[in-house]
Every structure is written in structure tokens, then in C-alpha cells.
């Protein structure tokens, strides 16, 4: 794919050649030319809904490329910067899509929506490759070689996270926004218009009957029973009763007193807490498909009923509590005395050199791992033991951990 025309308005010819020749950009273009084109072609053969989804995925990859080029020449901008906005909006447009595809491609559609957050690797540190692997594992079916190639690209160039340039080389307007993704339009069809006219005419016809319309009613006995259609109508109404809809709550991201409340947030990958005092704490509740970074030292951190999230923290004075969490990644970059885990599944704890003296207490947890990070960005994954053997010694129970080979 030729990107020279896309940047010709914003770079001099020598600067453009320099950016295009960088290995980070050249390898990404190789990924786009091969895997993405094949992915879009397959989507086009699966119907209009998948074709539109393929166009959205292509727009998300183009937005990621624009941010890579910007980041190689500039320091990291603020999270509300328009470059980041274009990048995150392209990903969220796929994750939050409300299109209902046909039954034949429902599994394909769901797999892409679960894997596309892998493009947010630019906001993940220090192990974006593990994050991409988890997004691929979340997909219920194979999404082709596209995301596998993305994993290899990030492992080669951004193993410990994307490295932003320290000095600005172009203005904020230097990168144009990527092409807007196609919108899903639900234009009214001629059939719906015809049915509306028929309903209106039927209503007017009934109104013109006047008092004669009451002749259709059947007499009702004193006990409330009748021979008319009332019973049938009541039966149909009772049978059509639907279960109550689950109540939805508005997202909350606010500091109340000395506690940060992060509640009911979905599909947000740029959340940052920069607390001014180490006496402040953070409480996360029902966060899904999102990532949060705590840049400064806090008192304690609590994560409750959250799934498929990434949390990065600096140092903690007291402890970190994880309750009913699923597919959570927690990165500890500083001192953490204690991590308590209760009823968690598929949790990964990334520990740096500063946090390796942590104590971990777990109960009712399964498929949890501890990843020991090295200075070069590599890590060693160690599985947490789940089986406990209990024997009766005299009148006391003695429990020991069953080591796995």
C-alpha cells in the first residue's frame, strides 16, 4: 500500500523518505499489505455486514500507522490529543458496534470484535506482546494470520512498549486524520413506508365506524368471565411477558474525598490517574475491556468484578485486592507489599525487580500466573499453584500445596 500520497502534504520529500525507510514503519506496511488485504478480501466474500466490518478494521490499522509515524517523530501527547482520539475512536467503533450480523457470520463478527483491542498495544507497557496474545486467545475462532503477524511485529519492534521520540519533529497538525470509517446506515426502505400507510388507513377505517365498532364486543358475566376474545388476548399478553431488562449504570471516573472511583467503564484504553497525594486510593468496579494507569504512589488498590482489563500501577503503601476478576493483567512497577486474590480466574501479575518481594494470598483462584519481568523486556511466566492436599494429623488438619511438575 502506497502511503506517500497520504503524507505528501505534511512532509518534505527527504523527511518523507526518511520516515518511510524506518524499519518500524516498513515492517508495519508489510503487515498491512499482506495480512490486512487478505483479511479485507475474505470479509468481502462473507456478505455486506462483514464487508463493512472489514472496512472498519482497515481504518483502525491505518489510524495505528498514523500514530506510529507520529510517535517516532514526537514525544507522547496528552490522552485527549486529536491524534490519540482518532486512534482510539477507530478501535472503539468496532468494539462498540451494534450491528446485528446474520447467523451465518455471528461467530466471525464476534471474533473480530474481541481481537481488535490488540491494536491498543501502543498504550500498553511493559509487555504489549502478552496483551496481544491475550486478545487473540479471547477470540472464539481464528481471525487469520493478521493478528498473529501483528504480534510478531510488536515483539520485534516494541517488546517493552512503544518508544516515543523525546523531541518534537513536526507540529500537532502534521499528521492528518485517517480516512473516516464507513457508517452503518439504516435507511428506511419502501416496504416499511408501505406498511406505515396501510396501518394508518386501517386506523382511519376503524374510527369511521363510530358507535358500530362496539358491536364487536362480547357481553361479560358477573364473575368476570366471557365468551369473547378476551381470554385469548389475555393469554397472549401473559405469554408475551418479557424478563426485566438488566439495569445499566453510567460510567464513573471521579475523585471523591481521597478515593478514586472507577466504575462501569467499558472499552476505554487511555485512562490515567495522576494523584497528587500518596494518601489517595483507587477503587475499580465492573470495568470491562479497558486499561488504567496509576502513575504515582497510592495507598491501596481494589479491583472488583472486572474482566479483560489491564491495570498498571507504580507503588502501593498497603495492599492490592483483586475480587471476582477475569482475564485481568496487573503490572507492578514499584513496591507492593501484599496482593490479595479472591475468586479470580486467568489473572496475570507482572512483577518488576522492585516488586519481587511481594506477598500473594489467593483463594478460589484458577489459571493465574506470575510473570517476572527482566530489564530487556523479556519475562518468565510461573503458574500459581491451585491444588492443596489436606491430611489429618491427630486431631488437626495439615494442608500442603501440591507441586506440579
TrEMBL record:
Similarity comment text for this entry: Belongs to the CAP family.
Coiled-coil residue windows: none
SMART domains in the cross-refs: CARP
Classification via InterPro entries: Adenylate_cyclase-assoc_CAP, Adenylate_cyclase-assoc_CAP_C, C-CAP_CF_C-like, CAP/MinC_C, CAP_C_sf, CAP_N, CAP_N_sf, CARP_motif
GO biological process, alphabetically ordered: actin filament organization; cAMP-mediated signaling
CC per GO annotation: cytoplasm
Segments of skewed composition (Low complexity): 230-239
Occurrences of domain C-CAP/cofactor C-like (ranges): 244-384
Record organism: Oedothorax gibbosus
Superkingdom assignment: Eukaryota
SUPFAM superfamilies: C-terminal domain of adenylylcyclase associated protein, N-terminal domain of adenylylcyclase associated protein, CAP
PANTHER family: ADENYLYL CYCLASE-ASSOCIATED PROTEIN
An annotated Gene Ontology molecular function: actin binding
Identification of the protein by name: C-CAP/cofactor C-like domain-containing protein
Region (Disordered): 218-239
Pfam families on file: CAP_C (PF08603), CAP_N (PF21938)
